[in-house]
Every structure is written in C-alpha cells, then in structure tokens.
Please model this.
Amino acid sequence: MPTVYLTTSQFNENAHFSAEDNGVPNMRIVDIPADEFYRERISKERVKPVVAKHFDRMISAMTSPITADEKRPKKQQSVTRTMKVSGTSTEDALESFNDMFLTNHWSDGLPVVAPTPERVKWMLTGTSRSPDEKIGSISPRNGMATIEKIAVNAVMAGAKPEYLPVIIAAIEGLADPQFDDLHFATSTGSFNLLIAVSGPIAEELGMSNGLGMFSYGNRANSTIGRAVRMSIINFGQTWPGVNDMALVGRANPHTFLTFAENQAQSPWTSYVIDQGFKEGDSIVTLSVYGMGAPQVHGGGAVALVPPESIINTIINDIKTAARGRVATTPNGPASRFGRSHGKLVVIMNPEVAQELQGRLGYTRESLIQYIHDEASVPFEDLAEAEIASVKQAIESGYIPKERVAAFEAGLKPGGKVPSMRELSDLKLFVAGGIPGYTLTMRGYLDGIYSPDSHVTKAITGQTLTGKKGGSSAVSAR
Amino acid sequence: MNRLIKSMVIGIVCLPYLFAIAATKTDEVVLEVMDPRGEIPPPTFNAPAERVSNLDGKTVGIYWIGKAGGDNFWDNVEALLNEKYPNTKTKRYQGVFDLGDARAAEIAKEVDTVFYGVGD
Model:
C-alpha cells in the first residue's frame, strides 16, 4: 500500500528510526514544522495556510516514483566489542572517552566510569551467569541485552559487582515481552519508572530504605538505577528529543526512583511473599507511573494526620479516578466507569503501617480488601451512563472472568461496583523512615504497547551476597 | 643491592599495568573500552510500495491517531484534495498509533493510497 507518513518536525528523526526498525527504512515521511502545526491546529481556519503550504509536498510523496536509492537497504550500524580512545595523558584520554561516549549518545550526561575489559571482568564476578547469555531486546530500537553488555553499562554507572544481579533482574523486567518498556521510555508525557528492591539482598547491599530513601548519597540505590538508565540508552538507544520525547523530560532521569523496602520496620510480610516468592528470595519490581506522581499523604514531621485519614484519601483517589466524570456528548451523557482502571503503587511509611496493624488490626491483605470495598460505588449512586459503561466493560471482556460476578453483583440495588478491576491493582510497599510520608503513584493498569505496566523479577545468580543461585520463582505481575 | 632487587621486582610486577593504559607514542595514552551498545538485529528490508502515478479516480485514505487538533489539519487536506482532484475520493480513519496488521489489511482493501498521520 503506497503510504505517506506525516509527522511534525520534532518527531522526524524518531519517525525515521521507527521506519528503519520496522523494516521500511526509506519510508516516505513528510514533516510539518512543529512551530506551525501545534500553534495553528487550534482551529480549522488557522491551520488552513499550513496545509496549503505543505500540500504539494504531501502529494509529491504520494505520486512521485520510488527511486533506485529508495529501493536499496541502508547500511546497518555495527557494534564492536572494544574500541580505543587516546589522549596526551591518562586524564586527557579519560576526558576524550567521556566526550566520545556522550557525543555518540552512549552516556547520560554525567561523567561515566570507563568500561575497560578488566573492569567489566571485575563486574562479572558478581554473577554466576554466562556473559554471553541473551536477556532480551530493549525498546524502542530493540538492542540486545546480554549479561556482558549489562555489566559494561553497570561499570559505566559506577556500580559494584554485588549489585549486578539486581541490575540484571531489572533488565529482565524491561526485556519481558509482556512488560511495556516502550511507552514510558519514549512518550511525550513524562511517564517514568519506579524500581523497588525487596528481600534480603537490599540490606546486604546497604540500600537506602528509610529516611531519605529516594535521596542521593547511597551508591547501591544510585548506581542500580543509573545502570538501568544506561542500559535503556544503550540497548533501547533512546535519546531526549530524538526518540525519548518526554516534553519536559522525566523526573530523576539519571537514576529513576530506586528504593528498597523497609522490612525491618514493616509490620507485615514483604512484597516478596505477596508476589508468591519464598522467604529469603530477593526480587526487583519495575512499575510505570504517570505525571503528577508521587502524591504525598500524611503529615510527616509537621502535622498530625491519623492513618485512617491517609487511607480515606487513597480510597477517594481510587474512586474518583475510576469513575471519572460523566461527559456531555452529542449522543448523550457518557462515562468510562468500569472500562478504564488504573494501577496504584502505595509506598507506606512504617509508622502508618505499624498503626494500621497494631492499633487497627489490619494485615496487608485485609487492608487492601478494605480499600477495595470502600472504594466501590453503591449502585444507588451511579448515573445511568455509568451503569451502561460498566455493563459494556463486562460484555467486552475487559473485566476478567473471575471478577465478572463481583461487578454484576454491584449492578443491583444494594450492590456496590468495584473501582478496582482486581485487588492486585494496588501494589503495597512499606518503606521510608519515621516520621515519613505515604506516597501513591498512579499509572496505567495495562500497558499501551505490551500487556503489563508492572513486573517483578527474581534476583538470581548472586555470587557475592547471601543467597546464592536461584529463587523459588522467576517472575510475577 | 636489596633495594635494586626490590626495584626490579616492583618494575616487573607493574609492567602489565603500564601496558593497560598503553603508551603507543611517547606522549600518547590509549584507553581500551568496551562498546556499551546492544546489537540491533538487522530488520527485514522492504522498499516503499510503488506510488500511484496520479490521484485521478483514486481513493485516498487518511488515517489519524486522534490527538487534539489534528482533525482541523486533515479536514483542510481533505477539502484541498476534493478541490484539486475532483475525481478523487477520500476515506477517513481514526485509531491507535500502531494500527496493527489486521486493520492495515482492511484499509488496504478500501483505498488506493494513504496518508498516515501521527502528529507527534
């Protein structure tokens, strides 16, 4: 099918990469200058001159014959194993190396450690896995992550060998075909990645999980997150304004928000057990969250906010987001209730968790059940459009089979329609110090380009920390 | 004498390290580093489809991913097509960014050529 691809000039390079990666590198692409399109698209009248100005280019791309050049494949980039950088002194060579890596978009803008073969070999002492093992491809450009290449990026990030298994597990999460690693890394919205480490390895590595858990100053937190960023740059080949199109960038771009669960001060079993792994296993969880997160709940060191109020706020947030508003449309009132659920990561500070468990008697499971029940909407409160929307969600198969009964029961007098598609849509971690804040991070529930926006991977192959070898399971969602 | 032997031993032990950052010329230091990039598997190559030679009597598809304001742009494109090519029909589509093979095949049956508008 003769096709002309229209994009705006800001996305021209991105479009060419995308065409190349999808097997049509010479696709006819017409770019409309961004400063004309975005401003003038406000109305049909205002954008008319823009169309008139570029119309002939569009028609030419549609009708002029394909040239011999367009019929020839483009030269592929080649990846070498090593390369040499020279300078007049060691310092000069290191500076040239950093300049070269940044110029080629192989670095993150901060100076990196030189991945010499010796240092990469040292990094690989942290895992029992073969350097040649292929982990999978990373979006958007589908570069292959191998254990050795992950080690190269871990060296650059400043990591230590004992961190490597955590980094490998995180990259396994990104490479999981079920996990949407494309949207958060490239979208214009500033979607982002949360990296949570649970289980004994967090303590063994000295990860920050208390007061200031997202802060600078901890090598494990900082370099594990940075190695993930470096891997996205070098395997996915992202670059700001080229194919990472976050309009204002992404918060914590160099290290992401990387933290560990504060199991020592948590009254509950850890996320490890919650996800079906065994005591003693260690895991990494990746979760995509949206703009506006994290939301902060509680009074910290300043105000008195009882745990019940924090839970009520979370309940109301879930309910409000799920119901949305009933919109007025030419076809009458319309609702998305029941058809557009979100995922909520809750990072609860230990004092709140302790109060909820000690004074109010909640377990992790009963708390999530309570939030689910209270966030459900009484049938009598529902607008006609909301009832119709929930019915449509059931009929379309969007509601999982095992949950249909709960939703149908809500559509009767005296019933309540859930605002959460499933109880597992709420991901509960305990972390932070005392005093602290409870944080919530909302994200899309299902991925945009792949099914999932949240994935957990077992940490395996440790050679330098307590638990050697495998875990009781590989992954969870 | 002991000092001399000690110096020689230190010299021999340090020699490999001096070569790690090798001085190829008197004033040049060479640093060997590993390539951090992941290999990108060569994609299959498809040349762009042959073009229609003109639009007379053809049906032009317009696919738009639905972002705000794009309709204003495409309404004007459609109007200009109708004005400049009176024998040309247009057919509008709207959907997700990645329309998928099945939808693409459906559209291919209905039109002769298509504008695929992304707008970001």
Remarks:
- The two ends of chain A are 39 Å apart (CA to CA).
- Residues 44-63 of chain A form the longest helix (20 residues).
